[in-house]
Design brief:
It is a single chain. With 256 residues, the protein is an alpha+beta fold. The chain has four helices and 17 strands. It has a four-stranded antiparallel beta sheet with strand order 4-5-6-7, with no helix packed on it. The chain has a four-stranded antiparallel beta sheet with strand order 11-12-13-14, with no helix packed on it. A three-stranded antiparallel beta sheet has the order 1-2-3, with no helix packed on it. It is globular, with a radius of gyration of 32 Å.
Length: 256
Amino acid sequence: MKNRLTVLCVFISLFAFSQTKSVKKNPVKKVAKTSIQKGSSVNKPNPDLVVLNKDLPVLIPKKKGDQFGYVNQNGKFIIQPEYHIAVFFYEDCNLLNSPNEKIRKFGTKEYATVEKNMISYRVDHTGKRVYQFKDSDFGKCKFEEYKQQLFQAYILNGFYGIIEKSKFVNAADYRQFQIYPQYQYLFILEGDDVANPMIVASNNDKFGIIDVNNNIIVPFEYANIKRNFSWKLGKMFEVTKDGSNYYYIDANNKTY
């Protein structure tokens, strides 16, 4: 009996050894790597992000019903309207300076802030929610030096005009006005070019946009134009014709 067990163990060992050798002699054929092809598909431009005006964002907030989404420059919804708040794709300095280094990338201008059900997110250009805001992730903003405005509104006899602050001395001299007071209302919008700001103006109870040379940029046909950061962030104006439904236009008065 003992001899039979010995022979059986030897047989099993030889069988296992022969199988191992056969595997070594017939290796599985290696599949060619496709990392280059994969990389090229990832970097392929999104055809929906059309650029008709290089000065404008590729995605623009737009309201449909009671919800906001994002349209491309052709007016097509790329991110469907489902948010209570949607702002331009722009930097978030709190996230850029987050104590959590992994979070900082979500503070770049490649992402936008949206809000749904009282929860704020950052979304990418496909609409994917890539980050949910947490107070613990907020860092301290490092603000750039403030650009002092060269011009300001000036009221004379109930009408608004524009002066250049460093040169204006005497209101009795009409030549010292950049724009002599003639409007119902003027407001200089925040922007990067302080020498050529865009100005919200009101005339005959309608709003438009003028520049510091009193050229009409946007005709006086709106019930209101918001005095916000849309010009600074997106080179656009938020307007309404009925006083309640707001939408964006560019400096050519094109609607989005």
